């Protein structure tokens, strides 16, 4: 029983694979494409090579399991490329929303289901205003689907419905839509003053248009479903349409086919060079981050990160457990730091500490200067500015030291104001040393004059 379950699980994962020849693969679709285009023009890839693709190429995406890069797709289509996106419950909805297309449920009561099974509704070509179906469904009478989803567009957006699912109780639900990417008039698809595609164009084409074909059922083209004539005819017309000639020229390009889980590489329209390589790396990183957010870390990376975390925790625990600690003396037996002591020694230690702001040193020097000048002038309880004026009146200092005293008083007052207003002020050590030298010189002259004139 376990082997049977494993076998069917592995088989289920191979649905829509181009190289799978079983009933749920798409090898017959690839055979039809090679028959129509030639083997050399059909390329089955596991990674979309944006840097290699040209405007005349086409890309067919079956049931993507990861989001396509909308910027690369938009650039490819704007240059004239064509994209066929066949997806029902995969990750193609993000790209559809980029082009204002949304998934809706299929009719609950289809008009003509296969074997009366509502999960197998039959789609029919949609007839346009000219009572003719789109060329991509030319010669197709009906297409058998398998659990499809419908498509709808934003209000006001006009896309061409090519296949629809009729219902007994509601309007037909679009199954496949085609949209023109670019200026339809510049591409020669619409004549002036007309809303419908022009049948002939006499003026030269001035631009290129890309085409986006979106269909809500990739099962319609897998091997089992291609036994129905309508499905096989639609598969052939789809291949022809994706690489068919356009109004702006012949489209003899290649058809790239990807399915399920694939990657993307390169940047469309940018080849080589440092900036191209950088863009490619950045986009690969962005895709990796988006996939990690959606699917979680890859198993190998999760195991590696877990091992590194466990190893780091083990090394940290070992380093902490084997670290040697110095024997600390009891607090009561430790010497008292100078900054914690009182008196002159403690005050000097505080003022000389690296963390002490230099403005406090200036204030200490101001207090010492003020006290010394009072004592020498015999004037108690006088402020330093008043003492400086009194020194000038008594002509107690030389002109040079008198000017120096006034300058020192001004600088000390500025530092005191900054401290009182909690303002930040920068006082370099050199300025303090110079201030101390000036104060020492002033006091020395006062002492000298006192000795001469007691």
List keywords for this structure.
12 helices; nine-stranded mixed β-sheet; 41% helix; single chain; elongated; two-stranded parallel ribbon; alpha/beta
- Helix and strand string, N-terminal first? HHEEEHEHEEEEEEEHEEHHHHHHH
Low-confidence stretches: 1-13, 188-206
- Average pLDDT works out at 82
Work out the radius of gyration. Answer: 44 Å
Coarse structural class: alpha/beta
In order across it, which strands form the biggest sheet? 1-12-3-4-11-10-9-6-7
What is the tally of helical segments? 12
Based on DSSP secondary structure assignment, what is the total number of beta strands?
13
Name the shape in a single word.
Answer: elongated
How far apart lie the N and C ends? 122 Å
Strand % is 5-15%
Could you give a short account of the major beta sheet?
9 strands, mixed
What is the helix fraction of residues, given as a range? Answer: 40-55%
Describe this structure in words.
By secondary structure, this protein is of the alpha/beta class. 41% of the residues lie in helices and 13% in strands. It has helices at residues 2-12, 27-37, 70-78, 93-98, 229-242, 273-295, 299-321, 343-352, 358-377, 384-394, 399-420, 429-452; strands at 42-44, 47-49, 58-62, 82-86, 101-105, 122-125, 143-144, 149-153, 160-165, 173-181, 210-215, 255-259, 263-265. A nine-stranded mixed beta sheet has the order 1-12-3-4-11-10-9-6-7, with helices on both faces. It has a two-stranded parallel sheet with strand order 2-13. Strands 5-8 form a two-stranded antiparallel sheet. Helix 2 (27-37) packs across helix 5. It is elongated and about 130 Å long. The model is unreliable at 1-13 and 188-206 (pLDDT under 50).
